[in-house]
Design goal:
The protein has nine helices and two strands. The two termini are 57 Å apart. Strands 1-2 form a two-stranded antiparallel sheet. It is mainly α.
């Protein structure tokens, strides 16, 4: 039952700042999440379109021969590997167990990415530390090998002319640009972990919401109506929101490392 006079004289300005902040940060986060979804969808479609066009142009432009067929199989494998490495970069995966089993990556390529020393601080001011190829840039290795295979096909005379090679190079550049697009998706729209800010502000709002219910019940009792016990759903909602938000992706909770 609703009592028209139950809110008379009640001052609800205590929760007004929380209400405004919750509305702002939730709208900010939802807008950022939708933009990231659109960018990720576009990046996947661009990778699919670029790889398909590269293989279609190669098969159409080049004269078939046993030597060319072997090169086309290597290029197709490297194109698939480049897309898989982009997926590993997004999900922060470093295992190549399934890729080795199906022959998608060779032992030489795997050694170059994971075991070969690429950097060494050998300058006078350096500490002599050595490091392998950075994992976040593994897709560039596949792009490099694809580019080498394309140049070799052109030098061997399989492509009719330079414009044909330039067209395939442009498609390869579009494919490699998707790595930068993926990097941009991992960045936040502001220099702060706005997902964490959203969680804390919303949690504070849900925690203080039962106290407002208590005040309303007291005011109802003062007005001559029977007071009601505040419903504990706000506390349950707080715990549920905290649990679900903790499972959010790392890139949504913290800014990507520089």
């Amino acid at each position: 039952r609703f009592f028209p006079n139950s809110m008379a004289g009640f001052d609800s300005t205590a929760l007004l700042p929380f209400q405004m902040m919750v509305a702002f940060v939730m709208g900010f986060r939802l807008s950022g999440a939708f933009n990231k979804f659109e960018s990720a969808n576009k990046a996947v479609l661009d990778m699919h379109a670029s790889t398909r066009k590269i293989m279609n142009r190669l098969v159409t432009y080049c004269a078939r021969s046993p030597q060319l067929d072997e090169a086309l199989i290597r290029i197709r494998r490297l194109l698939v590997l480049s897309c898989v490495l982009v997926k590993k970069h997004v999900r922060v995966e470093k295992s190549f167990y399934f890729e080795e089993r199906c022959g998608l990556v060779t032992q030489q390529e795997l050694k170059a990415m994971t075991k070969t020393i690429m950097l060494e601080a050998s300058m006078p001011a350096g500490d002599g530390r050595k490091s392998t190829y950075p994992a976040r840039n593994w897709p560039a290795v596949a792009f490099y090998h694809v580019q080498r295979e394309l140049v070799k096909i052109f030098h061997d005379g399989h492509l009719p002319s330079s414009p044909h090679a330039a067209h395939i190079d442009a498609l390869m550049d579009q494919l490699s640009d998707t790595l930068e697009e993926v990097e941009l998706i991992g960045l936040t729209m502001a220099p702060l972990p706005y997902a964490q800010v959203t969680r804390w502000i919303t949690l504070a709002f849900l925690v203080f919401l039962p106290f407002e219910s208590v005040v309303r019940c007291q005011h109802t009792a003062w007005s001559g109506h029977t007071p009601r016990t505040p419903h504990p759903s706000a506390h349950h909602t707080s715990a549920h929101y905290w649990h679900r938000s903790a499972a959010a992706p790392r890139t949504a909770r913290f800014p990507a490392p520089g």
